[in-house]
């Protein structure tokens, strides 16, 4: 990780600068993308918030600014799939 000087804050890690350039929505999308990958690879019971944070390249505590829990992330990840499935069922019945 590189260090950069900034007029507002004398020392910022390059990772912090990168995160500052993303909108809150972008960070949330990265967390969800990472969570989907971790859930698929490990299954829900074995997936951890720490693994999701590492995959998303965000701090573990930062995830809690977006989601209350692993259950909350999981529901957000699967909600579109469930909605699509329900639409498909309604269209065919």
Automatic annotation (TrEMBL):
<dbReference type="InterPro" id="IPR001647">
    <property type="entry name" value="HTH_TetR"/>
</dbReference>
<keyword id="KW-0238">DNA-binding</keyword>
<dbReference type="InterPro" id="IPR050109">
    <property type="entry name" value="HTH-type_TetR-like_transc_reg"/>
</dbReference>
<dbReference type="GO" id="GO:0000976">
    <property type="term" value="F:transcription cis-regulatory region binding"/>
</dbReference>
<keyword id="KW-0805">Transcription regulation</keyword>
<dbReference type="Pfam" id="PF00440">
    <property type="entry name" value="TetR_N"/>
</dbReference>
<dbReference type="GO" id="GO:0003700">
    <property type="term" value="F:DNA-binding transcription factor activity"/>
</dbReference>
<feature type="DNA-binding region" description="H-T-H motif">
    <location>
        <begin position="48"/>
        <end position="67"/>
    </location>
</feature>
<dbReference type="InterPro" id="IPR009057">
    <property type="entry name" value="Homeodomain-like_sf"/>
</dbReference>
<feature type="domain" description="HTH tetR-type">
    <location>
        <begin position="25"/>
        <end position="85"/>
    </location>
</feature>
<protein>
    <submittedName>
        <fullName>TetR/AcrR family transcriptional regulator</fullName>
    </submittedName>
</protein>
<keyword id="KW-0804">Transcription</keyword>
């Amino acid at each position: 990780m590189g260090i950069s000087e900034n007029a507002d804050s004398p020392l910022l890690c390059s990772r912090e600068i990168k995160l500052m350039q993303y909108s809150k929505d972008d960070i949330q999308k990265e967390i969800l993308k990472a969570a989907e990958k971790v859930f698929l690879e490990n299954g829900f019971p074995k997936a951890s918030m720490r693994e999701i944070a590492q995959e998303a390249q965000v701090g573990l505590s930062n995830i809690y600014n977006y989601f209350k829990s692993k259950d909350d992330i999981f529901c957000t990840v699967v909600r579109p799939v469930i909605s699509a499935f329900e639409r498909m069922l309604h269209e065919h019945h």
